[in-house]
Structures are given as structure tokens and as C-alpha cells.
Amino acid sequence: MKGKRVFLLGAFVFVIAALFAASLIICPVDASAKVYRMKIQSAYPRGDVSMELLEEFAKSADKRSNGQIKISVFADPELVPAEQLFEATQKGTLDMLHAVAAMWAGIVPVGEVEFGLPYAYNIPGDKDIVESGAIVRNFFFNTGFVDLLREEYAKHGLYWLDMHSYGKIFTLATKPIESCDDLQGKKFRVEGSWANYYDMLGARGTYISGMEAYMGLKLGTIDASQWDVSAITGLNWHEVAPYWLIGGQNDVVPGNILVNMKTWTELPDDLKKALMDAAEDYYNILLETYVEEMEKVYGLVSQGKVIKSVLDDECEKKHAAAAYKLWDEIAARDAAAAKGIQLIKEWRKTLK
Known about the structure:
Elements: H1 2-26, E1 36-42, H2 49-52, H3 54-64, E2 69-74, H4 85-91, E3 96-99, H5 110-115, H6 129-142, H7 145-154, E4 158-165, E5 170-173, H8 180-183, E6 187-189, H9 194-200, E7 204-206, H10 210-219, E8 224-227, H11 230-233, E9 243-246, E10 254-260, H12 261-266, H13 269-302, E11 307-310, H14 313-331, H15 335-348
Parallel strand pairs: 1-2, 1-3, 6-7, 6-8, 9-11
Antiparallel strand pairs: 3-10, 4-10, 5-8, 5-9
Helix pairs in contact: 3-13, 14-15
């Protein structure tokens, strides 16, 4: 009996081992199923719509990669100050950054053009933010502009992944601005070349962090500040600056996601595609959310908590003249910027 029990035990072990071996043959271990853990930081604080929705970008990347891409999302300044995002992503301290290119235009001059020179993304006709966003996205991907951007960022160890739209530029002011006389001497917190733009119009362009804008408006350190719809719906700037400047603005504010080049090149092709598709998903969900945010703004306008301040025709013409002069000045500084501006000029001829 003892021999029989030993035989049966041996037979049982053999069967289990055989089944295990068969499972390896049927379902081999996928050596390519490496998990890539990444960190992305936004240039914007918590409360900003685009920053908060980066969690959806991370979820989409996870899903599209079958769990192989795991992205941790951070806001300004949780890992590094916004001003250091570019360098931190170059060095690999961060794998990705989320921002507007104007922040790094001193390093990558075509970034000024990418962000949107004044009037560059001013779309003719009565288009909503989804239609306007699609028109500008078409410009990026179907005119060679993306190729130009990827070439320029690659020189700095970064891969330009995708663009997204923050909808319209929102400029909120502490007092009404309806004429160019009202602009004189006013301090505008803006990004990139928009500082030069307002300087040309008699105001004073300056930059402070978005984290500091509310208090700057409240204390009078600045008179107006530029952002997207989150200025109202997330950051509540209208509490201290209720006047919504209409005129002289762009209908689309493009942002970008940049990836450390080493991080990018190490990804297999299928995961590169997954990350790019996730970025496009982010573009779509961001605009869908901004449609809802705009409805909130219109509600606040009807309640008198946000007050439209519309530029007169004469001042609008002066804004346009200053913008086109600025285009020429920026084109003269850098060959890539000049090429980008020429692409915009040619594209704008096709707009109706």
C-alpha cells in the first residue's frame, strides 16, 4: 500500500508539472510586456482645467497600452517650478511636460509661433471652440508645421508629442478696457511675445506665475491677466478682475506635450502609437470639457459677475497692425520662426 501511495503521489506531481509546462507553451510569457512608468508635470496649478484633465490622458495611455504605460500626473510646482519644466524634461527628471511653448521661446524660438502670435489663430466667422480647435489642429498636422516643430525640439533632446487647445484666450481686467486710451500704462500679465504686443499698444506686458495672478490682480500689482477659461471657472480671477476683454485676442490657444527624447526612443513602436493616441484623446476631452466651462462663463455673464469689455473698432485695428508688425520682427530673429510664420500666412489665406 505504501508503494501504491508513493506511485500515486508521483503520478500526481507529474501531471501537475505537465499541465504547467503545457500552459507555458500555450500562453508564453510576453517578454515585451515591460511596464514603462512615467512622470508628467503641468505648468499650471491644481484648479486649472487642462491640468486636472491630464489624469484622463494618463488613463487613456494606460488603456491603449494594455497597462504598459503608467503615468503619474503632477501640477505646478509639485516637482519643479514651472520655469524649470523644460530643463527638467530635457534631463529626464521628468518624462514629459505639459505647457505652452511661449514659456520656452527664448530656447526654441519657433515656440512663439506655435503658441500663437497675436491674430495668428484668430478664426474668421462665428465658430465655436471645437470648430476653431479643429481648424488650428488641421494647420498643425497638414501643412508641415508639426515636422518643423519636431525638428526644432529634437535639437534640445525633446520629442514634440501633440498639441491641444485651451479654447479662447481669456484676458481679465480689474477695470473696463474699451478703447486704446484705456490700455495706456496698464500692466498685463501675459505669455511670450504678447508682452511685446501690449507694449506696442501703450500698455506694459509682464510675466508672473499663474499661481500669483489672483493676488496680483487683487493688490493692483497687475491690471489684467491672460489665461484660458480656467481663469474664471477654476481659478476665480473674476472675483478680483471681472472685466472680460473682447478683441485683439486669439480664438485658439495651443498647448503641447513634450517628451524626453530618451524616454520616447526607448518605447516600442506600438507604445509610441498608444501614447500619441492618448494625447489625441486628451485633445478631444479637453475641448469637450471647455464647452461645458464656457457655458458656466455665459451664466456668470448673465448674473453680472463677469462683464464683457469690448474693444472699439479703432482700437481693434491698432491691435491688428501691432500684431502683423510683431510677426515680421519675430520672423527676422530666427529661421525656423520665419518658416513657421510663412506657413501661417499661407494657411490663413485659405480660411473663410
